């Protein structure tokens, strides 16, 4: 449809990478904003240059599958996800890990034929959606005994196939990106409202395979909760659950595929729970002087039964970084939305709970009703704009020789204070150790009655060429701190290969054995995304 | 604690079975109420009589496990669940299927030792909570190669072990019944609010293993949604997930155990999400002249985002049978509850939605606030009383030679009308065919944005001695009708052995293979509850 090109080495659209001069100017502001001296700016390589030096494909594309290619540029584009490590390596022109083949199936039958061919040819298959993994989820090496690696890109399976307005469900192909599926649903006045930060480029299939976190701060926090049924192709045949609003017939088949990260089968489509576009909105930005008060207010809201759509707590660093406020406050962004009813009573009670903990809403709540401009003004609007653009910042920072990453978790409320203190101490110490210092901020992305989902951002100066080593040290400090407090290694960024050391400790051992047994049963040759979640055979 | 005895053949407390005279008098009213001529009343056998004629135990209790017995009375009590077929067979004194041994472990270590011994002795182990299965979930036969069957009764593991008030979670042993765990939580001002109809006798472990449906009509519909972590003993060791408010680290381990019905391991305890006891309540009984209008109102409420606690639609037969109203109306019981805020705005909008579909609330909404008597008056109160007592009715009807059962499902809204029509036609035809006629009613127990969970009750005259054959025919008609419309074979009654024919068609084939592979991995000798969910090896 569009000729707009994605960056082959960094996040998002290529045309959004600022010019050398703009980056230089931005670098000049970094010292003041974050206390970090930039380098460079350096410039990325060209696609032609890197494509000309990647290793030869070890496998010839089968003549029976016209949609499979060994084109070097396609292989470069399918080498990495979009973690910091990926962008650093891409920026450095290192694409030695490129897959041997890229498949762009146009139908589910093409997917089936690809799996059959790959099984016979002993070629690893990596299901690929938007390629936005931040955990090396799409970066396979071929284990011993395999001829090579094929990246199975579902981009052409991008349609909303059916809409059921009475039951508010829609059958959507796995390769549809956020904007593509939302625009097709909008024609019916409907919306999925699953807005992970990667929304612009990530796909439904990727969301399902990685249990993406969505738009709603409460109740429907993961894409799991929006799923009525999933269809996947496994090497031993299609797996499709019945479209049901709920069931108690044995363990949920969908819950086996949700989070399976491509190791059990290739998700090809799903019936998703959609809803009318909201017409009523209520938003407020509540300011707190003390972090502990802000946390207590977020907990009160999470336990109130008000089920806010948005309950996003930004610490003062996060609030400043995202231009939400510069007054030194911690800010709780509270939002409600509905296609059914005005929201004044909900917001009024939410603000009472915040006030009980010392929260002030200096601009009061904002309300928008049917036909009015939606309530994206004010702090919440500033936040939203910053949220969508944030991943592009990583491209710029990499070009300025700056380390940047995020990590996120969920933890019971009773353990949060100790976790937060430990993360701050440990990650700051690691940044000092390997980078001489750095910036660390925290927000809550989702809240539950039993705990928050904290999300940390860190930025530190890089040593050119040592970025990955520095990053490893800081990531390890973070992962170890989470583990010490029983906080999950990820709330919605998946496990992939990067989180394996901590995931392996977190999951119950018999569960790991059961998962491996399932994989052997469904994928007896071990084709699918080896190394993700469990060891390759 | 209490010497109160449970019935060995029927539902619940033995002392609640009415006298011969009272049953005779009740039988006299049946013709008028349901158009069914009773027989008898017949009287049940004595425990002593049946215990003296059951087959000898094929396995001697091990001297190393003092809590294991072959006492005939204990074996009789652990023979069946509480389905209609179970009660009929129990009432007839048929306990040939009694397990060989009954274990009453006092600790998790006792459970572990039991599993080890059973593995060595080749004895089948049936995890047993309250014994209230309605799908033959606790009724094992020993497959070839096994020496016998042991019923593993978790009744002595009945404690709330820890309460975490900040995170609103509690660690509870699997053998705690509803009243036992609620009374322990009440000491902390907390409640789990999981109230399946079997609440009085069923246990937390049973709820988790069977994905019990609880109190909440929306959002927290299954016990799944109240679960923060589960601990189970598998034959290959303990399986315990981390207590987390949410996670995206791979497929959820808890979701593998939820609905596993005792085939993967013995659930010994769980961290559950509890909450303060509600202090605000709003209830209303909304009457409708037309069923289609009542259904449309229930759908509007389910899709409104108001998240009512109760949204229970009773058709006119159900409403009359439960003494909710006798005026021929279909009744939608709407309820909200909160420990945080008054509920007038919620109820006001709910009643508007009902009025849009012609619903009238003749007594208006009732509100109760902190310190007031809770809102159990009126139709909702009548319903609640009838709900808890309903299972006792089966005992009486069996003694009067009457067939009675329920079946339940969930289905998308767009398929509900056709499903309902087909069920009514098919089940009535089956009742006519095998019993000359009968009564059929429908209610919704839970509602989702994408569909309702309909629950059907049927009552028909029995032919003495042919009850199970008659029941089979009617059950089959119901199961086939559900399957024709893509409705799940169960929303919250589990699969057990009874639902296998339909469950086997419903689940994806690769999922069934994966589940069997998991079982082989975790329970390599196939000890645990063989025949439930999947075939014994």
Give me the CATH fold name of the largest domain in chain A: Uridine Diphospho-n-acetylenolpyruvylglucosamine Reductase, domain 3
Q: Which strands sit side by side, in order, in the main sheet of chain A?
A: 5-6-10-8-9
CATH class of the largest domain in chain A: Alpha Beta
The largest contact between protein chains, plus residue counts on each side, is: A-B, 98 and 98 residues
Total domain count of chain A: 4
Radius of gyration of chain A: 23 Å
Distance from first to last alpha carbon of chain A: 40 Å
Assembly state (oligomeric)? homodimer
Instruction: Give the biggest sheet of chain A.
Output: 5 strands, antiparallel
Structural class of chain A: alpha+beta
Descriptive notes:
- The structure is a homodimer of 537-residue chains.
- The first copy, chain A, has 16 helices and 18 strands.
- Chain A has 537 residues and is α+β, with helices and mostly antiparallel strands.
- The first copy, chain A, has 4 domains: 48-153, 2-Layer Sandwich (Uridine Diphospho-n-acetylenolpyruvylglucosamine Reductase, domain 2); 160-276, Uridine Diphospho-n-acetylenolpyruvylglucosamine Reductase, domain 3 (2-Layer Sandwich); 280-375, 2-Layer Sandwich (Alpha-Beta Plaits), CATH 3.30.70.3450; 401-505, GMP Synthetase, Chain A, domain 3.
- In chain A, strands 5-6-10-8-9 form a 5-stranded antiparallel β-sheet. The first copy, chain A, has a 4-stranded mixed β-sheet with strand order 1-2-4-3, covered by helices on one side. A 4-stranded antiparallel β-sheet of chain A has the order 13-14-12-15, with helices on both faces.
- The model of chain A has no long low-confidence stretch (mean pLDDT 95).
- Chains A and B meet through strand 9, helix 8, helix 11, helix 13 and strand 18 of A and strand 9, helix 8, helix 11, helix 13 and strand 18 of B.
């Amino acid at each position: 449809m569009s000729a707009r090109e994605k960056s082959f080495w960094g996040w998002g659209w290529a045309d959004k990478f600022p010019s050398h001069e703009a980056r230089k100017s931005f670098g000049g502001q970094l010292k003041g904003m974050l206390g970090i001296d930039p380098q460079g700016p350096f410039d990325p390589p060209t696609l032609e240059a890197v494509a000309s030096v990647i290793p030869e494909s070890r496998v010839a594309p089968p003549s029976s599958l016209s949609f499979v290619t060994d084109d070097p540029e396609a292989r470069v584009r399918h080498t990495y996800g979009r973690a910091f490590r990926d962008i650093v390596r891409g920026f450095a022109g290192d694409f030695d890990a490129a897959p041997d083949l890229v498949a762009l199936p146009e139908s589910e039958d093409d997917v089936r034929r690809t799996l059959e061919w790959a099984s016979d040819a002993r070629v690893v298959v990596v299901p690929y959606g938007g390629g936005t993994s931040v955990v090396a989820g799409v970066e396979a090496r071929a284990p011993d005994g395999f001829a090579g690696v094929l990246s199975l890109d579902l981009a052409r399976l991008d349609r909303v196939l059916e809409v059921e307005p009475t039951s508010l469900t829609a059958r959507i192909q796995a390769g549809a990106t956020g904007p593509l599926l939302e625009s097709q649903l909008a024609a019916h006045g409907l919306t999925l409202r699953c807005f992970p930060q990667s929304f612009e480029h990530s796909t439904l299939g990727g969301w399902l395979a990685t249990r993406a976190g969505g738009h709603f701060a409460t109740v429907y926090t993961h894409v799991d909760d929006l799923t009525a049924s999933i269809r996947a192709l496994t090497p031993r045949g299609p797996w499709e659950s019945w479209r049901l609003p709920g069931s108690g017939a044995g363990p949920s088949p969908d819950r086996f595929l949700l989070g399976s990260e491509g190791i059990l089968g290739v998700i090809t489509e799903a019936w998703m729970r959609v809803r009318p576009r909201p017409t009523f909105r209520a938003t407020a930005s509540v300011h707190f002087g003390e972090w502990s008060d802000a946390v207590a207010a977020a907990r009160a809201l999470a336990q109130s039964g008000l089920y806010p759509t948005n309950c996003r707590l930004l610490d003062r660093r996060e609030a400043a970084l995202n231009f939400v406020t510069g007054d030194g406050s911690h800010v709780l962004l509270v939002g409600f939305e509905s296609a059914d009813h005005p929201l004044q009573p909900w917001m009024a009670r939410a603000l009472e709970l915040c006030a009980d903990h010392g929260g002030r809403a200096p601009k009061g709540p904002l309300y928008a009703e049917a036909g009015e401009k939606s309530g994206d003004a004010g702090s919440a609007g500033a936040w939203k704009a910053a949220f969508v653009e944030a991943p592009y910042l990583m491209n710029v920072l990499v070009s300025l020789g700056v380390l940047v990453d995020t990590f996120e978790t969920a933890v019971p409320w009773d353990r949060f204070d100790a976790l937060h203190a430990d993360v701050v101490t440990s990650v700051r110490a690691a940044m000092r150790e390997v980078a001489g210092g750095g910036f660390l901020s925290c927000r809550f992305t989702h809240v539950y009655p039993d705990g928050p989902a904290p999300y940390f951002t860190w930025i530190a100066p890089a040593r050119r060429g040592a970025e990955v080593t520095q990053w490893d040290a800081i990531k390890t400090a973070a992962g170890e701190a989470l583990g010490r407090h029983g906080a999950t290694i990820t709330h919605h960024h998946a496990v992939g290969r990067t989180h394996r050391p901590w995931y392996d400790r977190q999951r119950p051992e018999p569960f790991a054995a059961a998962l491996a047994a399932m994989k052997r049963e469904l994928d007896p040759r071990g084709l699918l995304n080896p190394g993700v979640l469990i060891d390759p055979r």
